[in-house]
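We now fix the convention by which a protein and its fold are recorded. The integers have meaning only within a learned vocabulary of local backbone shapes. A complete example follows; check for yourself that the lines match position by position.
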Amino acid sequence: MSIRSGSLRLRALVIGVAVVLGVALVSPPAASAASLRLRILDFNACDQFGRGNAACDATPTQRASAIVQSINSYAPHLVTLQEVCRSTVDMIAASLRPSWTAQFFSTFTTNDSRCQSVDHTWGIAVLARSTVLSNPQAHKLGVETSGEQRTLLCVDVAVGLAVRTCTTHLTAGSDANAAAQATTAVNLVNQWVADNAVVVGGDFNLNVRACGNTNVSNGLRSWYAGRFGAGVTRCYTGIGSMYEVDQYRAGGDGVYDESTLGSAKIDFIFGNRQRMNADYSGDATSSGLSDHDPLRGAITAHD
């Protein structure tokens, strides 16, 4: 698989310029299977070399190598990344070709040496175990005072089934702002859930392990199908269309809403119940290269 760069044609709610890594086709082919046990990896990579965070002080080369090893070990169909340098995504894509395709979107241009590259772009990415990637869209959710753009990046991929796959990284500075951004994002996602298998992985910066937080409720209730929060406690009422891979379910693995940053769970993998079975499972693993733990998820998707 050759790796090409190009710009996106963005719609009314879409901002910026994204870089296409891999082959972008006009539309995905028809799905080749009626159902598929989807495996997804979400990871806030904390590509922050030299920024004073000891948990994240690995070079992009070291981080890319570790992510590739994790991908090869878990064998996911889909990977969603946040806080990642374009140069890191380039190295990951080069190591995984020809069977993987990647889409990167720059949410911020750094003015420091964290990316160890002449390319200073930094942001979010979707990778798929597929040579087919199409219809990339980057939807604006908000802008930080630093200039960082909070964005929902989505692409259509074919991994046996056609899946619209999205990622986002919401604000860390304010629960209220993160909740507002989450609401904007889910309103976009809800336009697709009736007719598409949809997966969203990301760092929402809303701690679902903490009960009694109005912002958590406001920001996540329209995502979750059914009660959710704090594992088996399920202290919030969900009114949405999505299963989260590590939320409580009867007959599950017994460990739910595992922490992904310290004692908080702020990283999520959602799949829409219209095209996903309620057989989801999630596992927050560990990483020596980020202050976040990678989140692995599995769920059966169908036509």
Observations:
- Confidence is low (pLDDT under 50) at residues 1-32.
- The longest strand covers residues 133-143.
